[in-house]
Structures are given as structure tokens and as C-alpha cells.
């Protein structure tokens, strides 16, 4: 009967396999125990603070180096621009001095030629050349003084402001571009509110002030001309006020005096 059941089972489950009892005589294989996971070190609060401080210091150092390089480049650029500006001013001054020297030489040559032939021209003809010579020499002296003491332009501005009849109108000042920074610093020191108009046509050492209808001409050539005219007028005044020589006395023969007879 067992066989019939076995055959029936095989017919019903053709893919089934007979179960065999396990072999208990061989010891089972032991699987190796897994290695323990490494311990992960979690930083403490002090360590985190130290890491943050180190990162901040590194960033500050990098920023300092970048700022230093940027500042150095800017300083070198500004120094180069200042050097170029100084060279330009020196070149302009040398050109002005050379032109002044040529004018002086030409004037002296003309005067020497006139002195060699005193009858060629009158004193009135020589007066304009003498004035031009004096003005040229005075301008050269003033320009040399301004080159050594550029702050003298502040005195010119102060004297020009004192000549204004009224201070109720806005003030506009025409100045040479190289004098503007000096005058601006001086105006700020005395609390003056001025509008600067940079004008290369204004020679260094002078200015032109406009306030409403008022106009103060403190340009260098104007001040030199006024000073020379004043000196020339003082020199000419004694000559004009000198008394004229009395005319030669004429001897009159009294009518009653008899004429001498040669007979």
C-alpha cells in the first residue's frame, strides 16, 4: 500500500524529489563574524570652534593679501599718475621759462640796438619795450617763486575775496587746474563755499572771481601790469612836476639912454 501511495505521489507530482534526512555526522560550517564598524570621531564643541577660527583666520589672511596686492597696485598707479603730472608741470614750466628767456633776449637786443643809435628812436618809442622787459622779468621771478611756494596762491585768493563789494551772491572762481586743489583746501579751512571753474587759460598764481555783476580780476598778468603801471607812474611823476627852467633874460635898453655913436 505504501508503494501504491508512492507511485500515486510520483504521478501527481512528477517534479517532486524525495526528501533525504540531513547528514548530522559532519559539523556545520561557521560563517565568520562581521568586522565591527570603525568608530566615527565626532568633533567636540571646542574642536568645532577651533576649526571655525582657523577657517576665519585663513580667510582673513587671504583677504588681507588680496587687499594688499590691490592697494599696492593702486598706489603704484597713483604714484605713476602723480609722477606724470609732475613731469608735465615741469615741462610746462621749462617751456614758459624758455619762452620768457627768448622774449627777454629779444627785448634786450632791441634796446641795445636803440642805445647804439640814440637818435634812431625817441624815448617815447622805447617806453613800451622797457615796460615789456620789466613785465617779462617780473613774471619770471613770480613764476619761480610760485614753483617753490605754490601755497602763495591762497594769499591771492584771500586778497581778491576782500575786494568784493558784496558776498550775497554765489562765488565762481576761474583758476588753473594745478591750483584748484590748493585753493579748495584753503577755502574749506576758512569755511568758504566756492564754485571752481578749472581754466587752463588762467596762468598759475592767479584767479578770476565772479559774483553776480561783480568781477575781480586777480590774474597774474593783470596784477603785474597794475604794479608796473603804478611804479612807472611814480617814476614819471617827479619829471612832470619838476619846475621848468626860466627863459633867458633879455636886456632892454632904456628909451632915455642915448645910443653910442661910433663917429
Automatic annotation (TrEMBL):
Residues 1-41, 236-263 are annotated as: Disordered. GO terms for biological process: bacterial-type flagellum organization; protein transport. Keywords: Bacterial flagellum biogenesis, Bacterial flagellum protein export, Cell projection, Cilium, Flagellum, Protein transport, Transport. GO terms for cellular component: cytosol. The keyword Transport applies. The keyword Protein transport applies. Residues 236-254 have a biased composition (Low complexity). InterPro entries: Flagellar_FliH/T3SS_HrpE, T3SS_Stator/FliH. Residues 103-226 form the Flagellar assembly protein FliH/Type III secretion system HrpE domain. PANTHER family: FLAGELLAR ASSEMBLY PROTEIN FLIH, YOP PROTEINS TRANSLOCATION PROTEIN L. Needed for flagellar regrowth and assembly. Belongs to the FliH family. This is Flagellar assembly protein FliH. The lineage of its organism: Bacteria, Pseudomonadati, Pseudomonadota, Gammaproteobacteria, Chromatiales.
